[in-house]
Amino acid sequence: KDFMTIDGVPVEIDGEKNLLEVIRKVGIKMPTFCYHSELSIYGACRMCMVENEWGGIDAACSTIPKAGMNIKTNTQRLRKYRKNILELLLANHCRDCTTCNNNGKCKLQDLAMRFDIKDVRFPNTASQPEIDDSSLCITRDANKCILCGDCVRMCNEIQNVGAIDFAHRGSKMTISTAFEIPIAESPCVGCGQCAAVCPTGAIVVKNDAQKVWEALDDMNTKVTVQIAPAVRVGLGKKLELDAEGNAIGLIVAALRRMGFDEIYDTSAGADLTVLEEGNEFIKRLDKNSNLPLFTSCCPAWVQYCEKNYPELLPNVSTCRSPMEMLASIVKDQSNSSSRRHVHVAIMPCTAKKYEAARDEFKVNGVPNVDYVITTQELIQMIREAGIIFTELEPEAVDMPFGTITGAGVIFGVTGGVTEAVLRRLSTDKSKASLMSIAYQGVRGMKGVKETTVMYGDKEVKIAVVSGLKNVSDLIERMKSGEHYDFIEVMACPGGCISGAGQPFAQKDIRENRGNGLYAADKLCNIKCSEENPIMMSLYNGILKGRVHDLLHVNYLP
Ligand code: HC1
Ligand code: SF4
C-alpha cells in the first residue's frame, strides 16, 4: 500500500488520479473553479494550490499523488494567494450578485464568502462586452466570466459541438463563438451543459418562470402543465428532500397550490411515443429501409443531427417527442374553450425551450407548448410561493392523462426509451420476460451501450448513446461499416436525469436519479405502454385519422 501525508495526516493512495481526490478523502474540500472530474484537467484557476515539503507550490488538480508525498493545503501563504486570485477575479467581475440569475449558486460568490473577502483592492480594467441573449436556451454574459474554461471543455470534449472557445490573448482573452457571432447562429444545440458547469453567472439557463406566473395570475387563462419523467427525481436537496426518490405527488400538490388548472404527466406522452416509434421501427425493419432508426425525443440531438449530419435525418424517427405529442393532444382538446389556454411543460432540459418554439409544433402560429420551465425554475417558483415542499401531502395527476406506465417513466434515464420499446416489441409480457429485457445491457450510466436482441427471426442490433461526443463517435463507426438497427440518443450524459435544467449533479447523484426512475417503474402496476388504457381511448377518439397530424413531424429540410 502507498501512503502520503496531507496536513500531517497519513492517507492511503488508492488509484486516485490527482491530489484533489486524495485530499477529499481526509475531509477537506479544496476550492476550485476549473476542476470537473469528468472533464480534462485545465489547471488554470490555481485555487487548489498546495505547498509541498520543500516549500514549492503545486496545483492539486494536476499533480499525480505519489507515495511519500507530504503536502499542506492550508498555510498562510496559500490563503494569501487564494485571496489574491479571488480579489483579481472580483475586480473584473460585475458584482450585481443580488439580481444575478446565479445568485446563491455561484462559486465565486461562495468562495468570496468562504475566504472572507470584504474589500477588492484592484481596479476594474475589463471592457464591458454585450450580453448574448440570442439563444432561447441560454444567456451568455462575458462580464461574469472568470475564464475557467469549463464551458469550453464541456462543449468540446463531452458534446463535440465546439460552439465556444477561447479567443484573443492576455488581458483581452474571452470565451467566444467563432467570429463572435450570436450563440444562436453558432453550432450550439442548446443542451445547456455549458451552463450546468459554469461556476458563475457567465452562462445561465433562460428563465421563463415570470411568464408562467403571469399566465397563472390571469383569470381568463386556463393553465395546464405537464411534468417530464426526470423532474420527479431531480429536486433532491434543493427542496430539502433526503434523496433522489420519486417526488411526483409532492410536485403535483405544489403545482395545484400555485394555481395550475390541470396537471399531467409527460410519461403518458412517452407511452404514445413508444407505440408510434415501435410501429415505425417494425415497418422499417420489415422493409429493411432507413435503418438504423434514431430516436427523436431529445431536441438537442435532433438539432445536432440537423447541423452536423443532415444526411442522417431520414433515419431520425418521425415521432414527435413525448412533450410535443402530449401537448398537441392537450391543446387540440381544448380548442373549443372560451378561455385562453396556456400549456406549460416542466422539463429537466434547456433544449426543450427551443423545441417548444419550433414552427413544426405551432398551430396557426401558436406553440402547443407555450412555456418550458426547467426543474430549477420549478424549484424557484415553489420557493417564491413560500410553499414548504416537505410539508405537502402527495396528490395525483389529473385525468385523462393520469394513468401512466413504467415504460413511460423510465424515458428519463439513458436506455429507458429502448427498454420501453423492447417491452412493446416483446410478445411475452411476463414478469420474467420484462426482467430479462432490463438485464439485456440497456441499463446503466455508460455513455455507449450495445446489445443484440431477437425480433422474430431477425437479429436486431441496438445502441444506446448519451453525450453528443459518444454519438458522433458512433456515427463515425457506422460510416466505417458498423451496422445498427435502433439507436437511442440523449444529448446529456446519463439521459434527461442529467439535463442542464436539473440541479447540477455529479455521477453518484445521477445514478441515484436513474435508480429513482427504475423504482418508480416498479411501483407502476402497468409496465407496457400498449397496456395503458388511455391509449385505447385516444386512438379510438381524438387520434382517429389524425395520428400523423398530431403525433408526427417532418424534420427533413
Ligand atoms: Fe426527457 Fe422525454 S425523457 S426527452 O429526457 O422523451 O426533457 O425526463 O420529458 O419529451 O417523456 C426531457 C425527461 C422528457 C420528452 C419524455
Ligand atoms: Fe455547447 Fe451545449 Fe453550451 Fe451550446 S448549450 S454552447 S452546445 S454546451
TrEMBL record:
Cross-referenced SMART domains: Fe_hyd_SSU, NADH-G_4Fe-4S_3
Stored Gene3D superfamilies: 3.10.20.740, 3.30.70.20, 3.40.50.1780, Fe-only Hydrogenase (Larger Subunit), Chain L, domain 3 (3.40.950.10), Iron hydrogenase, small subunit (4.10.260.20)
Protein's UniProt keywords contain Lipid biosynthesis: no
Domain 4Fe-4S ferredoxin-type: 136-169, 179-208
One Pfam family here: Fe_hyd_lg_C
InterPro entries linked: 2Fe-2S_ferredoxin-like_sf, 2Fe-2S_ferredoxin-type, 4Fe4S_Fe-S-bd, 4Fe4S_Fe_S_CS, Cytosolic_Fe-S_CAF, Fe_hydrogenase, Fe_hydrogenase_lsu_C, Fe_hydrogenase_ssu
GO molecular function, one term: ferredoxin hydrogenase activity
Biological-process GO terms, alphabetical: ATP synthesis coupled electron transport
GO cellular component, one term: membrane
Subcellular location: Membrane
Keyword match Translocase: yes
Keywords: 2Fe-2S, 4Fe-4S, Iron, Iron-sulfur, Membrane, Metal-binding, NAD, Repeat, Translocase
Domain 2Fe-2S ferredoxin-type positions: 1-77
SUPFAM superfamilies reported in the protein's UniProt record: 2Fe-2S ferredoxin-like, 4Fe-4S ferredoxins, Fe-only hydrogenase
Annotated 4Fe-4S His(Cys)3-ligated-type domain residues: 77-116
Cofactor(s), by name: [4Fe-4S] cluster; [2Fe-2S] cluster
CDD domains per UniProt: fer2
Top-rank taxon, per record: Bacteria
Family recorded in the similarity comment: Belongs to the complex I 75 kDa subunit family.
Protein name stated in the entry: (2Fe-2S)-binding protein
Species assigned in the record: Mobilitalea sibirica
